[in-house]
Amino acid sequence: MCGIIGYIGEKPAGKILLNGLRKLEYRGYDSAGMLLLNKDKFTRIRSVGDIDKLEKKINGQWPKGKMGIAHTRWATHGGVTEKNAHPHFGRAKEVAIIHNGIIENYRELKEKYLKNHKFSSQTDTEVLAHLIEKYHQKHPLKKAVESALKKVHGTFGLAVISKKEPDKIIAGRSGSPLAIGVGDNQYFLASDATPLLTHTRKIIYLDDGEIAIIKKNNSYIYKIGNNNQINKKAQNIDWNTEEAQKGGFPHFMIKEIYDQREVFMDAIRGRLRPKEGSAQMGGFNLKDKEAQKIDRIILLACGTAYYSCLVGKYLFERLAQIPTEAEIGSEYRYRNPVIDNKTLVFSVSQSGETLDTLVSQREAKRKGAYVRGIVNVVGSTIAREADGGTYIHAGPELSVASSKAFTNMLAILTLYALYFGRLHKMSFETGNKIIKELEKIPGKINLILKQNEKIKKIAYKYSKYQNMLYLGRGINYPIALEGSHKLKELSYIHSEAYPAGEMKHGVNALLDKDFPVAAIATKNNLYEKMISNLEEIKARKSPFFVIATKGDKNIQRMTSDIIYVPKTIEILEPILNVIPLQLFAYHCAVKLKRNVDRPRNLAKSVTVE
Ligand code: AGP
Predict the structure, then answer these.
(1) CA–CA distance, 395 with 351 (Å, rounded to integer)
(2) Same domain, 224 and 264
(3) The predicted structure's pLDDT at residue 390
(4) Are residues 354 and 482 in the same domain?
């Protein structure tokens, strides 16, 4: 996520903005920039790399100005370059903007409204700056911003300043948070409260669809496109800085589990093609005709990303009938893999720097496969060395244990399976049903999150055991693996996962009253088989809890430790079923007083063999 900071008041803005950026560093970024307005003069300074580089560029020569905006960029559109760093200008450099979010239709906006404009960057934000400035030639700044935002599809948290109206900052929010800091004859704006708390505890949070005029002694808030002022009281925020960075959550892990209800949409937004009952990924770089010839798919990854690939295997084979293998990066590179020019290899990675995955990707490329990335970090090595691919738009994932990146990987794998399915035998109706169900997922994730307290109780009960067995069948077996992985890396409790059908082939020997089980028994074509497994577990007196489909009363005769998830189509069950297992592992770790965001012996990105 990008970081935004704005200031308007009586003090020199430069140091206030730079210190504000430092407080936003935790959000993750790859470049930074600031802009001050002094009378009718803009001074903009930008740099790639960390805030120190920006400060070095300023070199003590602080630009004049008592108002300004500053930004830390987490690249989504366009590489990591100084030209792509914010703030961005309109064509005549009369308007400057900083933006957090994704403008999905920026290409269409360019084509339709900005035909003869020249752009200095590859960003969607610069297009928005040009559009706002174009409207500003005829309208006051607030109306100009509203006119532009009405044309935008996507998400934004943005700040805009104009040479023609040097007494205000305009802020607008839809999908990316914004907070206003109320000072004494000075006002602040930021992506979250963190950088504001050193100046003020009085914070006004903008809600989606709102726009604010921020002056040095007041702020005026409206619904975008409306001139009736909304009265919003400032809240008194008593968080310390660390709590503010986590948005009030105690750990990044739980914050990022909750982030999933928002960021999931960022993975699919602008990529669905309901008219064709299909999906389209901009960076895939393969024409339909070439894609139709693909006769084998390899999904390369490690750890949690690998478990998303195991789900991907089910998705591609079920939806597109293309033979698909999920391969562990550290193993694949030492085999002599069978690859030809009709093989498509996806490297799936949050960091885009996992060496085992990267080296396997290089091997596949050397042998002539099509190689594409499914990656979170823009401009990372895996993304750069692949010949295209798709960013999962999960935003920076700061907890070592992955959560939102995993569900966004599943989202992208589903979109690709849908795309390939519709290139082959999948009907328009089936494709459209998948699209409709995908769009309901964020609301269903939210319903699961509302059971957090119940899941916490179950976790506290099971956290006393030394072992845990996770069971699932079919497309939910990889979720049993991921649930077990989460428990191991967060709580250090030993756990393992099996396809439930394997119980009778040896695993049953483990079962007794001290060996608990977590079972995924949602209503699908394997439900009855899972019920038989639960009977076996009960007979051997192992304690167990179950992930079940909302409304399933039958399961209540087996156990009272039930976590209900909303019904969805089977291929999307993994996205929902993993959420309670993430929360379960998190609460076990908290109960056991583990270092939740930084588990022992682990790194966020494994760049060694
Ligand atoms: C997941 O919780 C772990 N942090 C780890 O298994 C991780 O998924 C693995 O190291 C792969 O990382 P990547 O997605 O950045 O490639």
Answers:
(1) 11
(2) no
(3) 96
(4) no
Contact 33, 86 (CB under 8 A): yes
**Distance from the alpha carbon of residue 468 to the mean position of ligand 1, in angstroms:** 21
Catalytic position from the list 164, 567, 591, 604:
604
The residue-averaged pLDDT of 520-548 equals 96
* Ligand 1 pocket test, candidate residues 306, 346, 351, 399, most atoms within 8 A of CB: 351
Q: Where are the alpha helices (DSSP H) in 24-65?
A: 51-58
Q: Are residues 154 and 256 in the same domain?
A: no
pLDDT at 58: 96
Residue nearest to atom 7 of ligand 1 (CA): 303
Looking at the structure, do residues 579 and 534 belong to the same domain, yes or no?
A: yes
420, 461: one domain: no
| Global model pTM greater than 0.85 | no
Q: How far is the CA of 302 from the centre of ligand 1 (A)?
A: 6
Bridge-based pairing state of the strands 494-499 and 389-391: unpaired
Same domain, 396 and 422: yes
Q: Peptide bond preceding 599: is omega within 30 degrees of 0, i.e. cis? A: no
Pocket test of ligand 1: the residue of 257, 304, 374 to mutate, having most ligand atoms within 8 Å of its CB, is 304
Q: Range of 65's domain?
A: 3-245
Atom 3 (ligand 1) nearest CA: 401
DSSP 138-179: TS-HHHHHHHHHTT--B-EEEEEEETT-TT-EEEEEEBS--E
Q: How many Å lie between the centroid of ligand 1 and the Cα of residue 591?
A: 24
Q: Which residues contact 609 (CB under 8 A, 6 or more apart)?
A: 330, 355, 356, 359
124 and 201 co-located in one domain: yes
What are the tens digits of pLDDT across the range 297-308? 999 999 999 999
In percent, the amount of the chain with pLDDT more than 70 equals 100
Shared domain check, 422 and 312: yes
**66-84 pLDDT tens trace:** 999 999 998 877 888 999 9
User: What total number of domains does the chain contain?
Assistant: 3
DSSP class of residue 571 equals G
Question: Is residue 23 flagged as an active site residue?
Answer: no
